[in-house]
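Good morning,

Attaching, inline, the backbone tokens for the sequence recovery test we're adding to the shared suite. The designed sequence is right after.
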């Protein structure tokens, strides 16, 4: 008896300790209570839909599904009847409204919604609401469930599926939301037909006849289904977990992916959904965390909005769920600490408890390459990272597949970041998400005319024409080649890729090197952009730098009274030419100041090269675009060419002390020594008398191959794909 009493005392003590050890969960719970209690006090509002994103009815219905989810979670945690009653009453109001609704009055989407302007947002509503319905399901009376399922949930699910197959039956983040919405409500209602549609796509009498095979009436490509949730997992992710639409859209889609997977794990464990495709969802979450700059802000590639980060509500779910379902990786706890909130479930409580127990270890970004394409053969992205003092520097090179409708024509582009943010930027999308004054949150016309075009990115543009002539189908049909990636070394890291289809008869090959050397306070970025062709072309190599131009080593003519655009199409119509110069000597150098730091870009030039300073903002009557600066190296030549540039971060400026430190760069000279289809050899030197020679194999990436190139009387020899050597001049 005494032992039993001691055991009970220990259990009570452990329970008490556990309650004290989850302050983050307690804070999240308290905040949710306050929000939902305020909504209960204000009363239920389900207005007749009329507004685009940002307008009252849109935002009211959006707030409703957030609150429904939270109220359901609160009922599960507290068993307080008021929360279940609120969920029931809200659903009853929607059960009265939904049967009266036709198409949303805006009617401006390929799949117009009922409650919202597009089916995508309707699917958002049902994903969140399904969680609330499951939470209170056993609390409802049979007649209440019958009414909700007859007048609201089942018609809603059919609306998103068989009534909108163009929305439901394809591979896209929109369809992921649709599949998850229909599947989650199907699991609650125990509706096997709806669940089959969600998992495998619509049967053949609801899809285009020419897309149907005879295997159960579902679309298949190459032996794999092309519709439904499992097809999303098959086609939208690479074997590395890279999402073909990019990190911004994976951040958005990871929510329905994980929630539906969680529901399937609970109700259909036989599917083994979290182990599906070698645990692709777990790879996707950890990959997504790596696809961010040093601040945890996701790389804004494709149709992304800048600023989306680890703080997103979708990532709160992803981090907490993966912590529990993915093996209690303590690195995730440090991200949860940063997020400052957890999910209102057992996973969230476990995360909060383990944070309180000091189990968190810092999450470390690392250099990494992600393949793209379901088979991993559709290019990819390469991320190089290096530490300098207390700061992390990060380079992203993009050679991925087009990214479907959200893709940009930007193969072999790169962007560069440090702890302060962007140094060389990707413009991302021309869109003001959920801003009513800017098109109600839709993509603006300039998203097509500007943001998607090649000149909007840091990549080579031929003849003022975007890659693939700006045609999506042509871009989707061809893939770039992953050539070489080396991210393990601390001193030298390299990413290299080729693109042979963007322009007819032209091979583009870019190699980016991140060099960490004691001679430089910060990593040096060496850029080799090689072009193989037999034809004459105009080449524009833009650098979209972030900051204020300080100086150049060449004289330029500035347009002070009248500005002209750089062109009439493919994005050039949006760029004002502010100044231009002819190259003087063989090196052009500019410096700028941004985020309290100094930067210098040095680039090798030929005698007829033009140097252009320009700024975004032309032909923009609604002021939808940012007025960002750009430096463009323009070259007109026949045949192959090599562009060599070096980017240096140096010094800083303290506005309180008013003292600049190291405001000038170190690079004195850049010289291409040799380049052809097989090899590129360059040399560069500093004012301190140090020099480096970079030898790179353009066609043989075998690490065991030996190479030999004679340039005049000098013989260059090395083994492997590259060699970078350093010498110092002795006075």
């Amino acid at each position: 008896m005494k032992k039993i009493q001691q055991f009970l005392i220990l259990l009570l003590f452990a329970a008490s300790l556990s309650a004290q050890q989850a302050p983050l969960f307690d804070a999240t719970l308290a905040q949710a209570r306050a929000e939902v209690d305020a909504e209960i006090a204000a009363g239920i509002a389900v207005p007749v839909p009329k507004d685009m994103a940002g307008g009252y009815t849109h935002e009211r219905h959006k707030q409703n599904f957030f609150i429904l989810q939270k109220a359901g979670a609160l009922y599960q945690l507290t068993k307080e009847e008021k929360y279940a009653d609120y969920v029931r009453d809200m659903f009853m109001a929607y059960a009265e409204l939904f049967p009266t609704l036709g198409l949303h009055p805006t009617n401006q989407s390929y799949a117009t919604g009922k409650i919202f302007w597009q089916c995508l947002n309707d699917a958002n509503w049902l994903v969140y609401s399904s969680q609330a319905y499951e939470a209170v399901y056993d609390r409802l009376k049979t007649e209440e469930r019958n009414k909700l399922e007859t007048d609201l949930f089942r018609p809603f699910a059919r609306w998103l599926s068989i009534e909108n197959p163009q929305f439901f039956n394809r591979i896209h983040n929109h369809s992921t939301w649709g599949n998850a919405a229909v599947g989650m409500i199907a699991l609650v209602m125990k509706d096997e037909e709806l669940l089959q549609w969600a998992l495998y796509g619509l049967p053949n009498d609801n899809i285009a006849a020419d897309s149907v095979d005879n295997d159960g009436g579902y679309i298949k490509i190459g032996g794999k289904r092309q519709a439904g949730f499992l097809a999303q997992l098959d086609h939208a992710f690479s074997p590395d977990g890279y999402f073909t639409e990019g990190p911004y859209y994976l951040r958005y889609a990871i929510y329905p992916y994980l929630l539906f997977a969680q529901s399937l794990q609970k109700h259909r464990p036989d599917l083994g959904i979290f182990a599906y495709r070698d645990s692709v969802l777990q790879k996707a979450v950890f990959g997504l965390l790596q696809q961010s700059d040093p601040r945890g802000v996701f790389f804004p590639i494709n149709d992304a909005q800048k600023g989306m980060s680890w703080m997103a509500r979708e990532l709160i779910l992803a981090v907490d769920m993966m912590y529990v379902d993915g093996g209690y990786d303590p690195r995730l706890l440090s991200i949860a600490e940063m997020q400052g909130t957890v999910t209102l479930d057992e996973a969230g409580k476990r995360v909060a408890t383990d944070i309180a127990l000091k189990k968190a270890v810092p999450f470390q970004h690392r250099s990494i390459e992600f393949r793209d394409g379901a088979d991993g053969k559709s290019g990819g992205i390469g991320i190089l990272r290096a530490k300098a003092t207390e700061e992390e520097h990060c380079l992203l090179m993009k050679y991925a597949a087009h990214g479907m409708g959200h893709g940009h024509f930007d193969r072999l582009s790169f962007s560069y970041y440090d702890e302060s943010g962007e140094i060389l930027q990707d413009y991302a999308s021309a869109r003001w998400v959920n801003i009513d004054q800017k098109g109600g949150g839709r993509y603006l016309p300039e998203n097509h005319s500007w943001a998607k075009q090649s000149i909007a990115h840091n990549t080579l543009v031929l003849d003022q024409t975007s890659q693939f002539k700006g045609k999506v189908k042509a871009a989707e049909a061809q893939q770039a080649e992953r050539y070489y990636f080396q991210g393990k070394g601390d001193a030298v890291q390299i990413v290299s890729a080729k693109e042979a289809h963007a322009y007819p008869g032209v091979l583009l090959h870019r190699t980016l090197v991140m060099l960490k050397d004691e001679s430089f306070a910060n990593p040096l970025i060496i850029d080799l952009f090689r072009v193989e062709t037999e034809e004459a072309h105009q080449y524009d190599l833009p650098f979209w730098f972030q900051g204020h131009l300080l100086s150049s080593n060449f004289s330029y003519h500035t347009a002070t009274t009248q500005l002209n655009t750089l062109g009439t199409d493919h994005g050039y119509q949006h760029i004002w030419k502010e100044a231009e110069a002819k190259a003087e000597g063989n090196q052009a150098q500019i410096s700028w100041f941004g985020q309290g730091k100094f930067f210098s870009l040095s680039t090798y030039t030929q005698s007829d090269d033009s140097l252009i300073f320009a700024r975004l903002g032309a032909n923009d009557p609604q002021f939808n675009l940012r007025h960002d600066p750009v430096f463009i190296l323009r070259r007109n030549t026949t045949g192959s060419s090599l562009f060599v540039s070096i980017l240096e971060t140096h010094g800083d400026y303290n506005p309180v002390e008013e003292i600049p430190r190291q405001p000038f760069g170190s690079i004195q000279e850049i010289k291409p020594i040799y380049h052809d289809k097989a090899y590129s050899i360059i040399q560069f030197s500093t004012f301190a008398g140090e020099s480096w020679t970079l030898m790179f194999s353009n066609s043989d990436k075998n690490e065991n191959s030996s190479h030999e190139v004679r340039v005049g009387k000098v013989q260059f020899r090395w083994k492997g794909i590259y060699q970078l050597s350093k010498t110092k001049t002795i006075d």
